[in-house]
């Protein structure tokens, strides 16, 4: 698996490094953006200031950079500044991801068609043209999509780590509980991706290629199909392959969306559990922890969708992995090539054999 992925990443190492750097920057800004909420809520609710720990304490000290007497105004301006910076960095990262994925897609199609263009004539006609077309169009696009999804997976990982870093500095016990649930959920998605998604993706390549072959041969041989009254047989075969493909499509979508609904219940349970924990552990000072509850609720609303997305992306990656294997094989497999890259004209052959060439006629190409 890693060898297959690295085969496509190596030619674009510098671009992926830039995407990774942009992702780390956005994750740091994400943690800073979240940490600012505690001083902001604290300024609104005006409790005691002894709850600041970790990143929120650092952020609270940054308000001295602004010449406002009102602490809430200083924190609010800081929050807006970090949010705007994060938005710009996010857009830059998305542009880097899209441009890298687009370049991969563009160059893969050219590489595949260039390789097919130098194959021997016998190699080309012995191949199923629909499969070659599928490799050049569908599979090459899926490779680009895979690499785009891979960068999304790393984005979610860094975002989760940044949020957990902030939460751990505020309340370690609920954070550890959240980490435990996240690990269990990811373990489930890892199992499903290996046992379900990869097999679905492999069969999808098989039936998708078969459909493409049938469609290509159907239109190329439409005259013979009509003449020999074979239309029903071709339509029946296509319907069979299409039915198998659609079954996989439905199954894939069901498995992909199942984790999302599980995590909605988990998120609500974690927020409720955090409130109960703070009420029992700090009953006398519960009101002073209202800002912490607000930040925790906001963080979990951002955290759990990322955990869900990370598991879903892994399932999508394993589902698309067979497409990468197909393209890698197409690019690396040795096949007979033409020795001469032009076919001799008929009159040249006749001259070689000592025959007089026929009178030249007008050919309308």
State the distance separating the first and last CA atoms. Answer: 48 Å
**Percent of residues in helices:** over 70%
> How would a crystallographer describe the biggest sheet?
none
Shape: elongated
How many individual helices? 11
Radius of gyration, in angstroms, nearest whole number: 30 Å
Strand/helix succession: HHHHHHHHHHH
Give the percentage of residues in beta strands.
Answer: under 5%
Class per helix and strand makeup? mainly alpha
**What is the residue-mean pLDDT, rounded to a whole number?**
76
Count the beta strands.
0
Which spans of ≥5 residues are poorly predicted at pLDDT below 50? 47-52, 359-365
What does this molecule look like?
By secondary structure, the chain is mainly α. The protein is 82% helix and 0% strand. The chain contains 11 helices and no strands. It has helices at residues 2-9, 13-45, 55-61, 71-117, 121-126, 129-170, 172-220, 222-227, 231-281, 290-332, 346-352. Helix 1 (2-9) packs across helix 10, helix 4 (71-117) runs antiparallel to helix 6 and helix 9 (231-281) packs antiparallel against helix 10.
